[in-house]
Design brief:
104 residues, 0% strand, single chain, mainly alpha
């Protein structure tokens, strides 16, 4: 009859197998967690791209409305009815010109 005795060598192999299985399980759990985070991040990026597209459209519409309002201000009929004068060479006052006029 043969008697099998487990020695120190078998104990090292068994502990190595247990450690490898633990590393495998931990890496699988971490992999699933990272995959879920990646999918969530992709979903957030997609939502933000849609929101950015909507905001760009709204900005373009507001720009068009502003341009229409400003183009109406240069209409000759509007200028004559309001009593404004269109000056081709306007002179603007600045703090330097006010100071220089005060010293003269």
């Amino acid at each position: 009859m043969t008697v099998i005795e487990f020695g120190k060598r078998d104990l090292k192999i068994n502990s190595l197998i247990v450690v490898m299985i633990a590393v495998l399980i931990i890496s699988a759990v971490c992999g699933v967690f990272l995959y879920i985070r990646l999918i969530s991040l992709r979903h957030d990026v997609s939502n933000n791209e849609d929101l950015l597209a909507k905001i760009q459209v709204q900005t373009a519409e507001l720009g068009n409305k502003l341009n229409k309002l400003l183009d109406g201000a240069y209409d000759p009929n509007f200028i004559q009815t309001t009593g404004f004068i269109l000056d081709k060479n306007p002179s603007y006052s600045s703090t330097l010109s006010v100071v220089s006029q005060a010293t003269n």
